Structures are given as C-alpha cells and as structure tokens.
Amino acid sequence: MKLAFSTLGVPGLPLTDVLRLATAHGYHGVELRAHPEEPVHPGLTPEDRAAVAAEFKAAGVEVLGVAGYARVAAPGDDEPVLAEIRGLLDLARDLGAPYIRVFPGGGTAQSPEEADATAARRLGTAAEYAAGLGVNILLETHDSHRTGADATRILGLVGHGRVGALWDVMHTWLGGEQPSESYAALSPYLGYVQVKDIASAEDTTPLPLGAGILPLAEVVDVLSRHGWDGWLCWEYEKRWYEAAAPLPGLLGPGREHLARLLSDSA
Questions:
Q1: Using CA atoms, how far apart are residues 231 and 45, in angstroms rounded to an integer?
Q2: Are 160 and 127 in contact (CB under 8 A)?
Q3: Alpha-carbon Rg of the chain, whole angstroms?
Q4: Do 265 and 221 meet the contact criterion of CB atoms below 8 Å apart?
C-alpha cells in the first residue's frame, strides 16, 4: 500500500512546504483539500494548474485526490451540485489526480430513499463527464451516509465504473460497523482509505496515529488479507481543531506506525 496525507492537516500551508514534508517523511502522495482557503482550488488559472502539476512531478510526489465539498444528496436543484462536481473533475484532470472526493450531505427533511435517489441521479450524470476526463468520483463515508452499508445503497444505484467509495475509517466506526463489515460493503467500489485516530466517540479531536481508539490495525489487516494494495491517506483534521498538535511533527511517527501495521499484517 502507498501512503499519503491530506492538506486538511496543514491548513493554508504553501505547496512547496507541503511537498517538502511529503518527501522528508516518505509519503508517496498528497490529498489536496480543494477550498479557496488553500493554495490549490478550482479557481486556479490554467497556468497555475500547470505549475502545481509540475511542482508535484519535480518532487516525485503524486496528487492522490482533490477533496471537494460537493454534497450529492443535498436537497435542492441538481445543477449547482453538478457544476461544483465538474469544477472538481476539471481540476483533478489538470493536476493528474485520479480521484475527487464528494460528500453525501443528505438533509434531515428527506427520507433515506429520497436522499439515495438524489445522490445516485447526480452521480450518474457526473459519471459521464468524469469518464471523458479519466477521473473517478469517490463518495466518502460521511455525514448522512457514514457507514459502508449506507454508501453502497447509493453506489449500487449508480452502477458506473467512474463512481466509487472513499472509506473514512472514523465515520464507519462511529456508525457501528466493524472494519470487516465496512470492507465487505465497500470493496467493489473502493478507491482509497482515509485513516485517522481520535480519543473517543465523544471527543473526535485528531490524535497521532496509534494514540487513540480507532481500529487501525484491524483496518490494515482486513485490507492486507484481501490483497488490497491501494492508498492509505492520513486525514488529520487540524483545520477544524485549532488546539490539536501541529501535523508536521507527527508525520514521521505516523508513517512509522502505518509501516508497522503493514508489516504486522503481512
């Protein structure tokens, strides 16, 4: 498996510094938070996008994905959501990223069936655009659809090879799924896996990998036993928790922890 980290853990950090951290600590890739607060977002000009792609190539680091905030199950008109997804797909194509991330984002006024149908309709439409660019759309296990079982209700309706799943291990655990259950549900669709650690279900402040209670060893073990050889991406939610320890000092030990889990599972 290859290792990456998300720029959610280093909010606003210049790209040169992000890539320096990746190379210094042995990470193969970076997931880019695509938000106007960040150096890389859909508002970049073609020249800026080319410069970003060149900087990644020169550093020997891959752009794993473009993490957007489109909410595919949200109530309302389809077109604003589809336009947001198209913008993310264009950015990913220009950067050479294989994936974009979208959220479910279902509303409390919807029935589960309505939310599923809305998300599937939009993802099915966006999939045709994605296919023309060679980029995959990944639905993250999150918010209204936090478990693998929840996400696959939507993905099964879509049935398109360009639409898959991003497994956030915290949300499936908070939703009551065991890693073996999450993997069984998501494996036909799995793009990559976001790892993290927290103190408890009540305190989701990010912790160094291995310092909390999330079943990371079990996640790595189930992936290894099934021969899965994709990406593990550390999503450290520093942007939402200002009091959390700075990520740069944790990246080296975090990589070592993941390497130990991979060695043990082998």
A1: 29
A2: yes
A3: 17
A4: yes
Tokens found for residue 210: 């291995």
Q: Report helix, strand or coil for 57.
A: helix
Give the residue from 13, 8, 6 showing the smallest Cα distance to 29: 6
Model confidence pLDDT, tens digit, residues 92-132: 999 999 999 999 999 988 999 999 999 999 999 999 999 99
DSSP 192-255: EEEE---S-SS------TTSSSS-HHHHHHHHHHTT---EEEE---GGG-TTSPPSGGGHHHHH
Specify the length of the chain in residues.
266
Distance, in Å, from the CA atom of 89 to the CA atom of 81, rounded to the nearest integer, reads 12
φ/ψ (deg, to 5) at 246: -60, 140
Over the stretch 11-66, which tens digit does the pLDDT of each residue have? 999 999 999 999 999 999 999 999 999 999 999 999 999 999 999 999 999 999 99
* Chain position carrying tokens 């290792």: 3
Which of these, 115, 104, 194, lies nearest to 146 by C-alpha position? 104
Torsion region of 136: left, alpha or beta (phi above 0 gives left; psi -120 to 50 gives alpha) = beta
- Residue ranges of alpha helices (H) inside 60-178 are 78-95, 112-133, 148-158, 169-174
Q: Give the helix ranges, DSSP H, for 10-111.
A: 15-24, 46-59, 78-95
Q: Quick check: 266 pLDDT over 90?
A: no
Encoding tokens for residue 96? 């050479």
